[in-house]
Design brief:
- With about 325 residues, the protein is α/β, with parallel strands linked by helices.
- It has 10 helices and 10 strands.
- Helix content is about 40%, strand content about 20%.
- The strands form 2 sheets. Strands 1, 2, 3, 4, 5, 8, 9 and 10 form an 8-stranded mixed beta sheet that branches. A two-stranded parallel ribbon has the order 6-7.
- Helix 1 crosses helix 2, helix 1 packs across helix 3 and helix 1 crosses helix 4.
Length: about 325
C-alpha cells in the first residue's frame, strides 16, 4: 500500500473536503483525487461514496481511515524509535515553557542539563501555558510545562513543583497591613494581570467571579516584571506566583497570602499520550524532576515513569 496515498486519503476524510485537504497538504486537488483513485484501484473497492450529494465515506473507507491512522502512527513511532536508538544521547529537544515558570525554575535546570549532555540542543519556546498546550497538541514542541488545574485524559502528566500565588499591593494600600486577603476583599481594586495566553489569567477571573464580582482589569501584559513595577508605582494590584514575586526587590511592594479560596500554583510537564517518548525526552523529564522535587524529598520514581515509553498513572 502506498503510504503517501494513504495519508492523503486520511486527510481528505478528516476534512470531508478535497479543497481544504489540498490547502493543508500544499498539493493540488487533482493530485489528491488521483491518489485516492489509485488507492481504490489497489484495494479493489470504493472508499468515497460518489453517489451522495454530500461527502461520505463508504464502509470500507471508514475502516481504512480508522486503521490507516493507527498504521501511520505506528510507523512514525517506530521511525522515531530507530532514530532514538541510533542517535543515543544527542539531538534536539523542543520544550515549551511559560516565561514565568522559565524564570522561576528552569535557568539552572537547562544550564546543568546541557552541561551534562553537551551533544543535546535544547530549543526552548516561551509562551503562555494556554499556548504551550496548543503547541503540544500540534506537535510544535516535544514537552510542555503547564499550570494546574489541567484536564489531561489524552496526556502523560508529571507533577513538577507546588507553590502558591501571591497578592502584590503598594505599601500604602489599605490592605498592606494584612497577612491574608480573601478574593471578596478585592472587589473594588484595579487589577493588573498577565494576559489571556496564561492559565493564571483565567484562574484569577474565575476566582473573582466565584467571589461574586467581575474584576476591573486596567492592564494586561505578558511580562510579570512590568506588572510588579506597576504595583510599585501604586497603579493597581497584581497576583503572581510566589517564586516569581521573591525575585522582584522593591521596598514599595507588600506581598500578601490569598485565601477564600486558597490559590495554589502547581506546575507539571505534559506529553501527548500518542507521542513516542524518546530517551532524550525521558532523560530531561527525569533530570528536571530530580532537580526540582529534591527539595520536597520526592524522587523521579514516585511518578511511575517507564523507559523508553512514558506511563504515568498517578493523579496529581
Amino acid at each position: 500500500m502506498n503510504l503517501k496515498y494513504l495519508s492523503y486519503f486520511i486527510k481528505v476524510a478528516e476534512h470531508e473536503n478535497f479543497t481544504k485537504a489540498s490547502n493543508e497538504l500544499f498539493v493540488c486537488q487533482s493530485t489528491l483525487s488521483k491518489s485516492v483513485m489509485a488507492l481504490e484501484k489497489e484495494l479493489g473497492t470504493n472508499l468515497i461514496d460518489r453517489t451522495s450529494n454530500e461527502f461520505r465515506l463508504t464502509p470500507h473507507g471508514v475502516l481504512l481511515c480508522e486503521k490507516g491512522k493507527y498504521l501511520l502512527d505506528m510507523i512514525e513511532k517506530q521511525e522515531e524509535n530507530i532514530y532514538d536508538m541510533i542517535q543515543g544521547n544527542q539531538g534536539v529537544l523542543r520544550i515549551g515553557i511559560p516565561p514565568v515558570i522559565l524564570t522561576a525554575y528552569f535557568p539552572s535546570i537547562i544550564y546543568e542539563f546541557q552541561k551534562k549532555n553537551p551533544k543535546i540542543k535544547l530549543h526552548v519556546i516561551e509562551a503562555g501555558a494556554n499556548t504551550i498546550k496548543e503547541r503540544v497538541d500540534n506537535g510544535a514542541v516535544d514537552l510542555g510545562v503547564i499550570i494546574f488545574p489541567f484536564a489531561y485524559p489524552g496526556y502523560h502528566v508529571v507533577p513538577l513543583a507546588s507553590s502558591f500565588n501571591t497578592l502584590l499591593v503598594h505599601k500604602s494600600h489599605p490592605l498592606a497591613h494584612k497577612d491574608t486577603v480573601s478574593f471578596k476583599e478585592l472587589i473594588y481594586e484595579d487589577f493588573l494581570i498577565l494576559d489571556n495566553t496564561y492559565m493564571l489569567h483565567d484562574r484569577i477571573l474565575s476566582n473573582c467571579r466565584n467571589a461574586g464580582f467581575e474584576p476591573r482589569i486596567t492592564c494586561e501584559s505578558s511580562q510579570w516584571d512590568f506588572l510588579a513595577e506597576m504595583v510599585s508605582l501604586n497603579q493597581g494590584i497584581t497576583i503572581l506566583p510566589h517564586p516569581i514575586t521573591v525575585r522582584f526587590h522593591s521596598n514599595n511592594i507588600k506581598r500578601i497570602k490569598l485565601t477564600d479560596p486558597e490559590f495554589p500554583w502547581d506546575i507539571a510537564i505534559i506529553v501527548k499520550k500518542e507521542k513516542y517518548i524518546s530517551s532524550l525526552m525521558d532523560s530531561f523529564i527525569q533530570f528536571s524532576c530530580e532537580k526540582v522535587l529534591s527539595a520536597s524529598h520526592l524522587s523521579y520514581n514516585d511518578y511511575q515513569i517507564e523507559t523508553p515509553s512514558l506511563d504515568i498513572n498517578r493523579d496529581f
